[in-house]
Sequence to fold (296 residues):
Amino acid sequence: VFETASLTNKAELRSQGGVGASAWLTAIPTSAILTMQPSLFLTAMRRRLLLPLTIGPSHCRCREILDPYGYHIISCGKNGGPQRRAGIMEQAWRHVLREAGAHVNDASSKPLLRNLNIPGILPSDGRQLDILATGIGRVPLCADVILRSPLSAMGFPHSQAADVDGSTFKQAYSDKARQYPELHPSDPRSLSCRFLTLAVETGGRFCTNCTNLFRELVEYKARSSPHVLQRSMQLMYTRRWWGILSVAVQVAVGSTLVPETLFAAGSARLVHTFALPSLEELVGGHREAPMVSRLV
Fold:
């Protein structure tokens, strides 16, 4: 199928691959952060199968006629989709960091660069970071989250997106390096914090920074358990946290594509802090099927 696919479909298929990208398909909806509204779930399924979307507006806010696959509305800056998507992914990463044991800022208190003791930052600097996490390493972790489409608003693959997995990540790293040059010194040891660009594609593919940080968090969290249970805890948190992040990607993209007035799609947004899981929820104790299928 891949060999005979169009360049657009090849880029979409590559965007759907990689570690954790498809975890939303097997995530057990034991809590709100792992649950998708029916309209968002169906939209995610149709996108994964490369099918036209069945619901949505006919025109963008920029007055362009929308294509049936959502290429334009996902990439259009005037529609506000990129900004909305980023907020949902930021909240998902904050929740994972909080479950790992870190102290994390909330959405209403993004850290200012001028308050992080970074050389070269003026007192009047107004730049903010998405995430500041402390307590899980030798230095604080600063991160910016970015969610990008491998396709243009016209549906054409960005450079090498049809041929290279995660081709958008290199540009994402470059953009953040230009935005925060003080956080990319020649000697990283000169910084009092660690900065990461946490990039993910709209199909669900996570960058190397994401997968490496994820592995560190799982290992850190498991070390707090008795040695005999550490491997089991790693597996449980791996399943749960990839589920949280993967569901967040689909909710973020789906919230851009599905109008909020349809099927209460907007209510699925990750806009607040969720409670930490109980042991029963963590081990998947709530496996009973729902009373009403979300596919109906």
Observations:
- The first strand starts at residue 103 and ends at 104.
- Confidence is low (pLDDT under 50) at residues 261-271.
- The helical segments are 7-15, 38-48, 71-75, 81-100, 169-179, 208-222, 230-257, 279-282.
